[in-house]
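Justification of computing resources. Each target in the renewal requires a structure prediction run like the one illustrated here; the chain below, 414 residues long, is used simply to show the kind of job we budget for.
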Amino acid sequence: MESGQLSCARKHVLWVILAVTAFAGQSWAQTSRFPTDLSNVRGFNYTPALVQGPPRHHIDCWTSYDPDVIEFDLDLAVRLNLNQCRVFVPYQAWLEDKDGLAWKLEHFVRACHARGIGVMPVVGYLRDWTRDTSLLPQAREWAEFLVETLSDEEGLAFWDVMNEPDWPTREELVRRECEYAKYMSGVFRELDPNTPVTIGMAFVPGMEQMADYMDVLSFHDYLQTRGAIRGSIERAKAFAEKVGKPVFNTEMGCIARANPYDVTLEEHMKANVGWYIWELMIVREGWGKVHGVFYEDGTVRDPSIAAAIMGFFRKRDDNILPSVADNEAWVRRVIEEGRAWMDSADVSNIETGYDLAETAANLLEAGELAPMNIPPTQRIAVLRAGKPDLEAARRLLGEFIQLLEPHQLEEKER
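Resulting C-alpha cells:
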C-alpha cells in the first residue's frame, strides 16, 4: 500500500475507533437538562413492533401498553449502546385513556432512565388545533398534563413540541403548522423552563426558520447520496454554531428512500453529530417494510444496521479483498453432489437433499452471493420444519446451484 493510501486508511480507522470509544456504553447523564453538546446522542425513535397500523400506531403504543414488551425492547436498545429515545405521545391516547396514561408514561420514562436512556416525548396533537385557534385551550391542557406527569422525572431529556411542521411542503399548511409549533414552544417553556424544547423539523431550512422557538436544534435526514447528506449536516452545523445552539438529527434511515442506515450513520458519526434512527423496532403493520432494526423476538433483518449503530461499516474503497466461496472446492462439491441427488432423489434420502441445500445456502450467505431480503438459510429452515416435500427440496437445491454455478473455480485458480 502506498504511503498516501496508508495514511488515508489510518485516518478512516481512527475516526471509527474514536466514534465507538466515545459512544460505547455511554448513558444519557448530564448535570443540566440544557446540554451544550449533543454529539454524544445515540438515539432511536420507538413504537412497539406489534401495534396496529396507521393511523393507530402511535396511539396503540399507549392504549395497548405492555410493560414487559417495553422493557424487552429497551433491553435491545441497551445492547446497541443507545442512550436516547424519541417517542410519540398523541393527544388521542389521553382522550382514550385519561385514567391510565400517566402511569404508563411514568413507567416508560423510568424504565428508560434505569437503562441509561433519556426520553424525548413528541407531543401529539389534533389537526383541528392548527385550523381553529379557539381550540388551543385543549392543547394547553394537554401540555399541562404532560408537564405535570413527567417534568420531575430524571429520565426526561427534551420536549419535542411538534413533528415536522414543514412537511408536507404546501405553503398554507406549513404556515399553520409552524404557528402552532411556535405556540406550543411558548407553552412548554412557560410550564417547564427546566427542560429544553425542540421541534422535529423535516428539513434544515425549516430548522433555521424556527430556531428561535427551539432550545436545541433538530432536523431530519432521509437524503439519497453521501454528498447530499454531508451538505445537510454541514449547513446544520454551521447554522448551529452561528446561533450558539447545539444540534442533532432526530430522524434518519429509510430503505425505500435510498437512505441506508450504514451510510447516513457513517456520515453523521464522521461529522460528530448526534442522531436518532427511525426506528428501533420493525413495526409490522406500520413502516416495518422500510425501517427498523429488531423484530419483536429480538432478531434482526439486516445485521449491517446493528453494526453501523456500533460504529462498524463496510469497506467501500478500491482496496477490497473479495471473499472466494469456492477457494476450498466446496462450491464445486455441492454442485456435483446436488445434481447427483436431484437425479436420484426419493423420499428415503430427502435429508441428504436438505443437507445439500443448507450447505449451499451457507455458501451463498457467507460469500454474499445471494440477495438477503429473504435469506437462503431461512428458506431451507422453513422447508425442513414442514412435512417432507421432495419436489420443493429439489426445486430449492436447483435454485441454489444455479446461483452458485458462476462462482466455481478451476483447480488452477484455487
